[in-house]
Amino acid sequence: MNIIMPFVIAMLTTLFVTPFVxxxxxxxxxxxxxxxxxxxxxxxxxxxxxxxxxxxxIGLVVAVFLYIPMTKLYTGMLIASILLVIVGLLxxxxxxxxxxxxxxxxxxxxxxxxxxxxxxxxxNPLTGGIIHLDTLRVTxxxxxxxxxxxxxxxxxFIWILWTMNIVGWSAGVDxxxxxxxxIAALTLGLLxxxxxxxxxxxxxxxxxxxxxxxxxxxxxxxxxxxxKIMPGYGGKTLAxxxxxxxxxxxxxxxxxxxxxxxxxxxxxxxxxxxxxxxKKSPVSADRGHLHHQLLNIGWGKRRIALFxxxxxxxxxxxxxxxxxxxxxFALLLLAAGIGAFLIWVQFFTQFSEPQDPDNG
Length: 360
Known about the structure:
Blueprint: H1 4-27, E1 31-32, E2 48-49, H2 52-67, H3 72-93, H4 98-115, E3 121-123, E4 130-132, E5 137-141, E6 145-149, H5 150-169, H6 176-196, H7 203-223, H8 232-249, H9 254-260, H10 262-277, H11 290-296, H12 301-321, H13 324-350
Helix pairs in contact: 1-2, 1-7, 2-3, 2-7, 2-8, 3-4, 3-8, 4-5, 5-8, 5-10, 6-7, 6-8, 6-12, 7-8, 8-9, 9-12, 9-13, 10-13, 11-13
């Protein structure tokens, strides 16, 4: 099986097409100017093109057409990906209502569930046994006979929707998102590669994982500090969508995906609890994310991006080498560590002057 060429083609396509997308974004005014377009979560200064999702989509589509068979599943994936990027480009031009964006994410998740991306089982982290989710089936007639695996499809829908949002929330500084997304996709690709010899049908999934890795790796040089282009809402949601899909298809190893995305996952959980606890909308933007707190204590943007990449790489190695029970322990340990850090930062920032960190 050739996994190198799909990775290289995806990476080079994204790498070389991004400057053209950057110019297009400027000409179409798909830019972010903090002076005229205030957003509480933004950390950049100056006018920065958005629309990076279009470059990422082009890299993905080119490599997928070359190396992935166009089955119902992968056709649905491309349709959903295009939908997410189109809405993202609209948001790049003028902010789209967050509930409309959430509805679009839900539609993309439903497309994938309809295309067959269900979760038939999960591993019980307490016993190591299998919990089957494909036992409850509902059949109905609508232009033919269709079946819904209720628990399998419901969990897949929630997982895809959740992952799209947590990845988007962890895309606040230059180079942060594409770095940890490439590492997460690589981890899931290596996991899938283990099963390819036993199950030839896994080959396309493995190739897809390396395509996603290459696509986001090719975007890093243009997004790393100082960024030339931002991923935009389309790029962020596309990243989460693809990682969620890989987590489902790589033999349903949601535990591995959950652990390698441990920092964005825990950050999102704390964010939801904080917003609900202060009676704010769960989708309202603010400056309380982990990367904002790191900026508050004087970390630079390069350091934050490298921190996310480094921790994701460590968690990826752990996820590939431990049992399900140990993955839960590692995730809980990480949650406790991040929680303690966030509490410490709250006290630190109350008794110190605001920081204006350099970007080293």
